[in-house]
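Before the break, one more example. Copy the sequence into your notebook; we will annotate it together after we see the structure.
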Amino acid sequence: MRLFCDSQFQTRAICSKLRGMRPVRLILGLLTLLAACAAPGQVSVPPETTLIILRHADRVGEDLTEQGIARAEALVAALEGVPIDAIYAPGIKRNLETAVPLARARGLTVQRIPAENPAAQLMASGAGKTIVWIGNKGNLQSIWDAISAPEPPPLNYGDLFFVTRARVGSPLVERRRVEP
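Here is what the structure looks like once it is written out:
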């Protein structure tokens, strides 16, 4: 144990806690530590949470095209009857413009989360709720990787995915489309 602590952990507090543990608790503690180290950035979809995730609507430059504006409007109808507690997006013009029709129809404000690795903040803020994330290719991929979702993320215009927690393994994903 001394060699393990001296070579692997530089913090005396951790080593002293490990030294005082019974063998079974020591093994469980080490397995927990290894699991945390093995999957940095991993987050799980909280229980009773539904993440509705999509890419912003069609664009040219920073502006939505006519097709993109129509697709953003069609999102309202595509989610009719689905309870939504919050809408999140990075503070990027095309994402916010995609969110506006849905937010207006639901009487919600689009809440901004930074585009860089938003999964942990999104899952913490949306725990136990039905939430919408309108993202970009990069942050959609980072969320997908962080929650260990199966198959490709919703990277195409019109992809609309519903993600829920599975009892075991990868989250469950229901794939839909939004067509203007």
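The beta strands are 50-55, 59-60, 63-64, 86-89, 110-112, 130-135, 159-164, 172-177. The first strand starts at residue 50 and ends at 55. Try to locate both features in your own notes.
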